[in-house]
């Protein structure tokens, strides 16, 4: 049977703590040559709206211990929009009912068959937050930190939930450009996490005095001033666009999510503009240690309380979707959740 | 609704002639900047059997005229085997019922939703044969050719069916290593195509005196001796492994399927051996014109009856699966074929 899940079902069997527990051994498997990751690709065509594009984004990965290979794919209608003087790329809920398409497909390594079709919404929030937390646990100072957060979307929520799994948080300050968003966010998350939390009107006020700084925006430009960073801080960036090279250059320890840091972009001939907002700046990812080696203890994290440490470019890699997808699939089956589709609907007698 | 088709249903609405008609405008769209192709990737892990591997192979492409983006994925258990003194890589029918998994997923450019899930078996046979025929039509001499065929599998059948759409075939000689295979093949295809056909015991006898030579094998080593080739011949290779550089160097006109000729291989750390049988030799694809430009008339094909012309590396590119998949989807809908699945089973409210 191929199991088809909903986000509600995924949420019932996968939380932030389970995500951390699923990801840690998967990253170790990467270092031990028993897991694989295919670099992310984004394939563009013109979109249905003015100034829009269509993008199929895919990434793959799997591990022998999990027994699965995963592909995560999102089929996106994209639009650029100015927010707070900065250009952002937004996903348009263009599918029926104002919805999106993002799926994780899990395949069996022993038979090749399709084991599960899982929406990526919950997994996506959990994987970014959990991965950041794995990095923060090894790169932030011990103790009970104050946190400065830039961003107030769903990924910002996940950053805090992840951090709360690895540190007892003392205090949080959050900045985002829209006053109501940051105020609502501070009230809601402060209550959920039971941590004193306040909204502040600038990034520098969020950073001032923080032990841990995290950014969770979809900005196309740097979101903080590197001069605000102090010795001893840990700073986590989700996307490379949130930080400039000068700021990265200030790190005493800089770990990247993966040395496959550049995305492969494909556009029609002469339409390189379609990928413009997503094209990286050619940062030399390979010069820095990867999270997998940090998690496996093959490279050192923080060794000194005065070091300024950073983690960057927490974009989706296949092993995350394999680990969290396999957990959701196994637990959902055990609980009798999900819709069963005959697996032979997706098989054929003819050799591909 | 998301339409789920079977190979039998695809076969009812898509034949070789329709495939040629669907592919030709799609290749033109590539040259005109209205279609896109993502390079093929193969992502490996150790397999479930001794000497085996697991591979997820994916490729993407789409066109604005078709209104779709396609991903083709095969989830394969692979095994190496010696056949006729040469090493071949074989797909193991490891899925339930001795089956395979190969799928084409079609997405809407205007909504992002999943339009169709289509097995790739029939499309795979048709796309290779039809693409070869598009090349042969522009690179082979006019008139009624004799054909030399190396290989007697299903792709060899498709090569002949494709050629028969663009030329009235006078005579066919086929070689494959196993005598019964080539004899059965000659009897069966000769009858189907109503062309005199004979099985011969060596590649050189198949090539001798032929106007068109085509190879359709899964050999890991060159399958013909370049010294057998004569001025005026057209030679089509499906895979780069079937031909050595010296033979390619003899071509007066050499067109490649795509300048994205190299496959991106991913393996676990230290397990580069898993992809060994599939790794290309770094051939400089970019130095040769692509099929799309040949089809669009942007580069010249054969200009002289004495030229030795060649087409090589007809491996899967996304635009083929988009064009043939979209045709099958549209015709199947028009005929009321296929199983309808609610499209919202594959959608989500959460932003991916």
Question: What does this 3D model show about the protein?
Answer:
The structure is a homodimer of 352-residue chains. Chain A folds into 2 domains: 2-123 and 318-346, ornithine cyclodeaminase, domain 1, CATH 3.30.1780.10; 129-312, NAD(P)-binding Rossmann-like Domain (Rossmann fold, 3-Layer(aba) Sandwich). Helix content of chain A is 29%, strand content 28%. Chain A has 9 helices and 16 strands. In chain A, strands 1, 2, 3, 4, 5, 6, 7, 14 and 16 form a 9-stranded mixed sheet that branches. In chain A, strands 10-9-8-11-12-15-13 form a 7-stranded parallel sheet. Chain A is globular. The first copy, chain A, starts with a strand and ends in an 11-residue tail after the last strand. The relative contact order of chain A is 0.21. The mean pLDDT of chain A is 95.
List the helices and strands and how they pair.
Two copies of one chain form a homodimer.
Chain A: E1 2-4, H1 7-13, H2 16-31, E2 35-46, E3 52-63, E4 68-83, E5 86-92, E6 101-108, E7 114-119, H3 121-139, E8 146-150, H4 154-166, E9 171-175, H5 179-193, E10 197-199, H6 203-207, E11 212-215, E12 234-236, H7 245-249, E13 253-256, E14 264-266, H8 291-295, E15 309-312, H9 318-335, E16 339-341
Parallel strand pairs in A: 1-7, 2-14, 8-9, 8-11, 9-10, 11-12, 12-15, 13-15
Antiparallel strand pairs in A: 1-16, 2-3, 3-4, 4-5, 4-6, 6-7
């Amino acid at each position: 049977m191929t199991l088809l899940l909903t986000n509600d079902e995924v949420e019932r069997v996968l939380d932030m703590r389970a995500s951390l527990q699923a990801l840690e051994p998967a990253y170790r498997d990467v270092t031990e040559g028993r897991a694989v990751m295919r670099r992310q690709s984004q394939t563009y065509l013109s979109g249905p709206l003015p100034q829009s594009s269509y993008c199929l984004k895919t990434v793959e990965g799997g591990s022998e211990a999990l027994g699965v290979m995963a592909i995560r794919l999102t089929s996106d209608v994209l639009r650029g929009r100015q927010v707070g003087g900065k250009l952002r790329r937004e996903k348009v809920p263009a599918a029926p009912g104002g919805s999106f398409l993002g799926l994780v497909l899990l395949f069996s390594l022993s038979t090749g068959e399709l084991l599960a079709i899982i929406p990526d919404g919950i997994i996506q929030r959990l994987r970014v937050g959990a991965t950041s937390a794995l990095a923060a646990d090894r790169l932030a100072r011990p103790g009970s930190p104050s946190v400065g957060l830039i961003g107030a979307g769903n990924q910002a929520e996940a950053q805090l939930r992840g951090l709360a799994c690895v540190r007892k948080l003392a205090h949080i300050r959050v900045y985002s450009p829209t006053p109501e968003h940051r105020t609502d966010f501070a009230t809601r998350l402060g209550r959920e996490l039971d941590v004193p939390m306040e909204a502040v009107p600038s990034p520098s006020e969020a950073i001032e005095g923080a032990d841990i700084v995290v950014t969770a925006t979809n900005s196309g430009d740097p979101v903080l001033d590197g001069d605000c960073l102090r010795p001893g801080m840990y700073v986590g960036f989700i996307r490379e666009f949130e930080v400039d090279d000068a700021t990265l250059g200030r790190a005493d320890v800089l770990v990247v999510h993966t040395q496959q840091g550049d995305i492969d972009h494909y556009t029609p001939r002469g339409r390189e503009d379609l990928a413009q907002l997503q094209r990286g700046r050619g940062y030399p990812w390979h010069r820095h240690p990867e999270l997998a080696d940090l998690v496996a203890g093959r490279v050192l994290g923080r060794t000194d309380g005065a070091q300024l440490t950073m983690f960057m470019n927490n974009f989706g890699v296949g092993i995350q979707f394999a680990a969290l997808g396999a957990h959701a699939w196994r637990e959902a089956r055990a609980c009798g959740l999900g819709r069963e589709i005959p697996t032979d609907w997706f098989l054929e007698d003819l050799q591909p």
